[in-house]
Each structure stands twice: as C-alpha cells, then as structure tokens.
C-alpha cells in the first residue's frame, strides 16, 4: 500500500510563556495551515510505502531526512566542496517527493537535512509513527506498539517530543545573521513550555498537548523522542514505569524479556524511548526534567519540560 502525504515548510510564530511570540520555521499540514512544532504526526504501516511531498514556502532551500529508516540520502555540497545538506534539497517555491518504506514499527523523526543546526532548532522536525501489521485504529484489541509477543499492548498512547528554543538565535536568524552560539532558554514538550504543555490540544499556537489523561488500571504507552540538541533526564512520579523499547527496538521477544523498570531516563539528542505503565490510583503525577535548569521559562520557575498524568 502507498500512502501519499503533503507537508509545507513555512514561517510561523510560537507563543512562549512570559516571552511573547517567537519566529519559527515549521512544517504545516496544508497550504493554508500554520507552521507547527513538531510537524504533523504521520502514521504509516510497516512495509507500506510513504511518498512524502515537501512544498517549500521558505525563502531558502530545505530538505527532509529520515533517521532510522532505510533510504539512500543524496548529500549536497556547495561549489567549494562543503557539505550543506544531508539530502536532496527543495528549492524555495518548489516541491520535491521523498519516498521511504519503513520496515519496522516504532516512532521516528523526520527533520530538515539542510543547514540542520539552524533549521532543526528553528522547528523543522516532526514524527513518523510506524504501526505493526494488524494494527487497526478503530479496534483497541489490536493496539500494540511492536506487534504480538513484544509486551507492548496498551490502552492509551501519548507521543512526547522534546525540544529546545534559543530565542536569541531565532531573532538573529530572522534578521539574516549567523549565530555564533547556542544557548537555549526555553525547553519544550510538543512545542510548548509548561504551563502551556497541559492545555488542551489545538489551544495556543501549537496543536499537541502533552497532558496524559487515564483511568486507574489502564495501560499507558509513552513514546518520548528527543528532537533537541541536548540530553534530558526525564523523571516520572508514576511508581512502576517499564522500558519496552529503545530507539524503536523492542526489548521483548518470544525468547527474551529485556524490558526493565526506571523512574528516570536520560534521553540523548535524537534518541527515543517507549515506556509502559499501569495507571495508578486517582491523582496527578508529574513528568519533568530532573535537569532542573530545563524546568524554567527564561529564568522563571516553573516552566519548560513539565507535564502531568491525570488519573481519574
């Protein structure tokens, strides 16, 4: 089966608590939609073909790369021989199709391969969710992250995309200047900083909430992926969290159970973790960055990487 998806690269604005709007470059789901961080979540089934068409509404070239996927990139060098893009570029006001056939389930980034240090930090990244064969969105009995025998069955799924913003760098890039340092001052989950992280979907400037709502006894699958450039130490107040996959490699098979319990994970740039827990008794439980300098907005606490699991 072939899945056709179109996305648009364009400029937009991000609302940050106590700071006001910040310019972003992001992906949008339609020609009239706003740029968003992260970009639209794309779902595809294992071994299907994804034909992703990028429409570039920016004033400079951009591209898409697919870390963790089997595809052959086409690096681009300038006339001096310096690498400028990890993959074929899409020129301003033009379109290009990128084709992949994901051969294993999991969560994976798609992100700019052009001037990546600037373009990814500005917001040109998103997530592809690859479903295992047999998954049916309307049939909860089929909901498993990695297929039967991997211990990844769930009732509720939540994707949390970690990111950062250097507001000074955004201002400099908007003015056409080249920043000489990277010092993030806002830290994001799904394009928002706390307390905006727990506002409902489609409220504020970014569409995806980070709040998790569950009932006691439900199995919750958290899929955390780090689109930022720094490591983060994510802590859970839930008492029994089990790691079931790392970088979309499941830790359980028919012959081996390599899953393990953690209350804090260190997630490096570009890494992902899948975690499962059974919702505990009624209450509000925090997920936050134990590197507490990442739980501020500017210099104001609380903020940044904090969200809530609300158990009814």
Largest β sheet strand count, sense and barrel closure:
7 strands, mixed
Large-scale geometry: globular
Structure summary, number of beta strands: 21
Strand fraction equals 35-45%
How many structurally independent domains? 2
CATH C-level name of the largest domain: Mainly Beta
Low-confidence stretches: none
Find the structural class using helix and strand composition: mainly beta
**CATH-derived architecture of the largest domain:** Sandwich
Q: Considering DSSP H and I runs of 4 or more, what fraction of the residues is helical? A: under 10%
The mean pLDDT is 95
Q: SSE layout and pairings?
A:
Layout (H helix, E strand, L loop, with lengths): L1 E15 L3 E9 L13 E4 L3 E8 L19 E2 L5 E3 L8 E7 L5 E6 L4 H4 L5 E7 L24 E10 L1 H8 L11 E4 L22 E3 L4 E8 L5 E5 L5 E5 L2 E2 L9 E2 L2 E4 L4 E7 L4 E7 L16 E6 L1
Parallel strand pairs: 1-4, 3-9, 10-13, 12-21
Antiparallel strand pairs: 1-2, 4-7, 5-6, 8-9, 10-11, 13-19, 14-18, 14-20, 15-16, 15-17, 15-19, 20-21
């Amino acid at each position: 089966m072939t899945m056709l998806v179109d996305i648009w690269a364009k400029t937009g604005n991000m609302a940050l608590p106590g700071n006001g709007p910040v310019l972003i470059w992001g992906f949008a789901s339609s020609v009239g939609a706003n740029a968003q961080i992260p970009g639209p979540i794309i779902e595809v089934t294992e071994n299907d073909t994804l034909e992703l068409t990028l429409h570039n509404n920016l004033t400079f070239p951009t591209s898409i790369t697919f870390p963790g996927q089997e595809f052959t990139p086409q690096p681009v060098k300038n006339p001096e021989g310096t690498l400028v893009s990890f993959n074929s570029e899409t020129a301003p006001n033009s379109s290009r199709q990128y084709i992949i056939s994901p051969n294993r389930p999991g969560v994976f980034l798609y992100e700019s391969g052009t001037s990546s240090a600037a373009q990814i930090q500005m917001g040109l990244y998103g997530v592809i969710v690859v479903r295992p064969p047999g998954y049916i969105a309307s049939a909860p009995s089929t909901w498993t992250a990695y297929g039967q025998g991997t211990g990844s069955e769930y009732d509720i799924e939540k994707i949390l995309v970690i990111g950062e913003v250097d507001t000074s760098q955004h201002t400099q890039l908007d003015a056409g200047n080249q920043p000489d340092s990277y010092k993030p001052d806002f830290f994001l989950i799904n394009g928002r900083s706390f307390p905006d992280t727990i506002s409902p979907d489609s409220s504020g400037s970014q569409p995806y909430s980070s709040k998790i709502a569950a009932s006691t006894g439900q199995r919750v699958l958290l899929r955390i992926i780090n689109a930022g450039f720094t490591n983060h130490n994510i802590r859970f107040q839930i008492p029994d969290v089990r790691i079931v996959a790392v970088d979309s490699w499941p830790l359980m098979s028919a012959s081996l159970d390599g899953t393990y319990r953690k209350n804090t994970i260190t997630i490096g740039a570009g890494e992902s973790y899948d975690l499962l827990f059974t919702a505990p008794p009624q209450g509000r439980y925090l997920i936050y960055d134990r590197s507490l300098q990442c739980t501020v907005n500017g210099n104001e606490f609380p903020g940044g990487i904090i969200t809530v699991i609300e158990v009814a």
